[in-house]
User: Fold this.
Amino acid sequence: MRHAPWTRPLLLLAVAAIALGLQFARYRSARVEAISAVTFAEQIASDARRLAQLRERQAAKESQALPDSDIVSTAATVLEKSGIPFSSVGSITADPAESGVTPGTGSEEQPSLRLSLRRVTIPSLGTFLKRWSESQAEWTMQSIRLTKSNPRTTEAVISYAAEIQFVLTQTEGSE
Assistant:
């Protein structure tokens, strides 16, 4: 069987068009995969930057620890020297500063120390506060709340429950 002279070039043209179509389909598929890979790589880079930021924040927060790493022990010692027995201590809690700014104040949060005392007298509390301010000048009393231990007492010496909060106002290197 004999074919017309134009069928061979037409057949070659059809084969070339099919090959070109297949190449275009492969190119398009490869392009989609490449775009997907680039997007994935950008996401990984973004996640890595975010992780680095979080690690920096955590390291900064950890390095912002209380200057006297044993401030709770120091508080217990000052209480003892003030004549307040350890049995009067409800709790002593040291809180390192949180990173960031305190909402509404525009100021950074400061490390704090909270003391909860039971059955203390006003003179012994005054002695404690005086000794504390002399030995721990960088810690400033922020608040104190006194509540009569037994409001119906008729004793000559009235004891109180005290909630005291101190904040770190300066560190050894600042003034």
Remarks:
- Confidence is low (pLDDT under 50) at residues 98-104.
